[in-house]
Amino acid sequence: MVQSIIPNNDNNKLTVLDIFPRFIKNSRGDLKPFDPDKLVKSLNKETGLDWNECIIIVKESLKKITILALKTIQTSMIREIMCLELMARGYIKERNIYAKLILSSVLKFKLEEAFIEKFKKIQPDWGPLGYITYKRTYARLIENENRTEEFYETIRRVVEGAYSIQKEHCFKLSLPWIPEKAQKSAQTMFEKIWNFKFIPPGRGLWMMGTEFIDKHGSMALNNCGFCSTEDILIKKAKPFEWLMDALMLGVGVGFDTKGAGKQIIKEPKDETFVFEIPDSREGWVHALRYLLLAYFDGDPIPVYDFSKIRPAGALIRGFGGVASGPEPLQEMLNSQKELLDKRIGSTLTSVDIVDMMNLIGKCVVAGNVRRSAQIALGSSDDEEYINCKQDKEALYHHRWASNNSIIGKKGMDYFKIVESIAKNGEPGIIFLENAKNFSRMGYEADFKDKKAVGVNPCGEQTLESFELCCLVETFPSRHDSYEEFEETLKYAYLYAKSVTLVNTHWNETNAVMGKNRRIGTSQTGIIDAFAKHGRRTVLEWSDKGYDYLRQIDENYSDFFCVPQSIKITTVKPSGTVSLLAGVSPGIHYPHAEYYIRRIRISNKSSLVDLLREANYPVEKDAYSDNSMVVEFPIHEKNFLRAKKDTTMWEQLANAIDYQHYWSDNQVSITVTFQEHEISSIPYALSFVEDKIKGLSMLPLTESGYKQMPYETISQDDYEKRISQLKPIKMWKTTEKSAGTVYCDGDSCQIIPEKKLIKKD
């Protein structure tokens, strides 16, 4: 008898697992055991759906999977089945997120490991505050390693994110994509950022390359935006919703008061319904929407259930940072209701609109967990608007939340605003007609921006309503030749243009950004560059650089099959990003050649002990029980002249020249003036009204506050302090950083505590 294997009857028993595939194959070809529980976890993590609902969707999807009778199934096939189930159950948004991740996971661009290895154990040429600023603000938490990123990891995430966007765009449109060429280009971009030749915006350092962008689109990658209330009778609550949504994503937002006198506030219906506020950004925005529509359209006011909102201090996954709890939202909704109750039967005034927007800004700040930047644009004839910050109680409660400017008119009477400017630097002036009619000033009007209605909070970008813009910063003082600078411009441009290839979650925003493709290639450390290369040389670089950017925009727009960018250059005020490289911010002069720069950090920060260990002076904040103040000795290497030694007219001349040679958007400048120059302000404004697009002015005074951000010191004092410091090393921290707002100049980071400091 021939030998045979006696069958094991146990193997013939059918189990539940036998009807499922044995293996799952991912996009890289890796095989892993099929695990239904992991499908539930994945769906919950990626879409944010309730856990029990995810179980139901996965169960229904498994029924379809079993019919296929496959031993091995592709992850893409599983996602397609799950997407159909989500669609069938009405989860359209969640379906779109889940479907998008199918493509993005397959098309992720990766830098070569051998290239990255060169940067793992070294540090770049930081400015004096560069590393601490980076760790405090931009290094994201790596949860599974209980530490925050190092700079090479941040740049890797950012560069891979930008090139993944390009790659996905090319695959969607069936455009050419050459991996070898992309790898070489990406490595050059990495090196440019590492060497501080250019830097993506703070928003980009914080969000680019994260799963949050894959799920929710590009809004969080943009520095700034604007929304108009002019068509409030049509758009209703939408400008307020959009502003809140954008601010919660770290975008600085401008708004106008053109809706004043149009919207009649109605008595809400004497009905109620319960709105259980979801623990999400969208949930907070919807809570505001329901309240406003109750007064705009006479709808019922909801009874709010805040029970699902996570408590203060809880980690915000995806976007990053920590939660503020429900209290700021509760206070904002109550304040809005109180304001609107008083207006029933009347129309909203310009100051009402400012207050409503400012209350949103105050809510978003949420105890300094998030930051908020706003600019209000009002009429130069609106005295109530111009003087609204004279109400100290309202100022301290919420009107600190916006920088207020007027829309300037050529030939206007500037004398009537001089007194206010001399006191506190407001209002700023935006020459909107110049911004609408001209690209670079001093050339023929091209009317490219004839549909523009406003600007971003620091005034460097002309914008249409619901438009966003991404800004990047170049460092001309970090270059030794124009040829090197020109190469940098290419990669700075390419980063910003990449951001325009991704849609946001707002249809109105996609419509305007899709046609304009506006970007802002900026320069920072301009005064440093003047000192290093000479003023005339830098202006020549700017003129040639602008023509070069226009040329490559034509080339890359053709390559990506998108419109050319309506405008491409700007000068932003900078601030935090300029600290990374150690240059003076934007087009502004430094405080002095040698000075102390003080920054505030949380007293619970792990950086406090690390700074003390490195011998930096650290002391308790005189104005806050929750903060510590750290002193950094600074030497401006490319020093030209201190702020106090520079006249108002010289600063204006710089703005005029950069508006002519470089910026086709705007030049953001805060012109400082001394007491003896106040009488000349009306004449100065009259002189520049047809040469620039906007400015703000600020008195240059000694405030007398303790622990001021800047304090001039001698060279000997500087050298003594610097000799006591230990070299920078890699600091392992677990900071819950929150990124930064789009506009990180001192005048644009709006934090209530700083606004309410009183002199002793």
From TrEMBL:
Its EC number is 1.17.4.2. Gene3D superfamilies: 3.20.70.20, b-12 dependent (class ii) ribonucleotide reductase, chain A, domain 3 (3.90.1390.10). It catalyses: a 2'-deoxyribonucleoside 5'-triphosphate + [thioredoxin]-disulfide + H2O = a ribonucleoside 5'-triphosphate + [thioredoxin]-dithiol. The keyword Transmembrane helix does not apply. InterPro entries: RdRp_reductase_class-2, RNR-II_ins_dom, RNR_alpha_hel. The keyword Cytoplasm does not apply. Its cofactor is adenosylcob(III)alamin. It is an enzyme of class 1 (oxidoreductase). GO terms for biological process: DNA replication. One of its GO terms (molecular function) is ribonucleoside-diphosphate reductase activity, thioredoxin disulfide as acceptor. It comes from the Archaea. Keywords: Cobalamin, Cobalt, Disulfide bond, DNA replication, Hydrolase, Oxidoreductase, Protease, Redox-active center. Belongs to the class II ribonucleoside-triphosphate reductase family. This is ribonucleoside-triphosphate reductase (thioredoxin). The lineage of its organism: Archaea, Promethearchaeati, Promethearchaeota, Promethearchaeia, Promethearchaeales.
